[in-house]
Amino acid sequence: MTPEEIRELLAGDAPDVAPRLLGMRLRSEIGGVVTEVVLTEVEAYTEDDPASHAFRGPTGRNRAMFGRAGLLYVYRSYGVHWCANVVTGAEGSGQAVLLRGGKVVEGRAEVIRRRGRTDHLADGPGKLCQALGITEEHDGTDLLGGGPIQLLPGSPPDTYLATPRVGISRATEVRWRFVAVAGEG
DNA sequence: GAGCCGATATTCT
DNA sequence: GAATATCGGCTCC
Question: Most buried residue, A33, A58, A74, A102, by most Cβ within 10 Å?
Fold first, then answer.
């Protein structure tokens, strides 16, 4: 799968794109140090979704969500953690897929150093960002343009679950959280 | 393992 | 002033 093919895939709607991100790899190269995870848990957020940051239109924080498919949207959660999303859909539509968790496959020693522990390295959105060193400086960067944060093809899981999303109070009935079950890499 | 709680930027009421 | 797309440390099983 080429970067062009991934971009084409990401131009679809977030709920369709999200499960296809499972098994793909997210790689970061910061200061010459490479760390990489395989994505195992994601959530879709769309333009007409009351739980989405884009629901009330563009703001200073969410402007990256309205860019072209394949951009990275980074926001601060609870004033403490960073969370990363892949922008999907047509430019200006305000969709994204939240990257909720992954499995470290490269640069494990560096991830342990960044996280300050040896377990639960990237099993949550804030942890995944800390593991890869993703911060506000990467907000709006292109994941398919050879930048420091890259989305690469991988092996899709054998199966995945679709469940309600986590940590939200509106539109809780849609099952737009996708979790890899087996063969995640 | 489950439940409580503090940290705190951005947005909304 | 309140809520939020969280996490880690603590307590009590």
Answer: A102
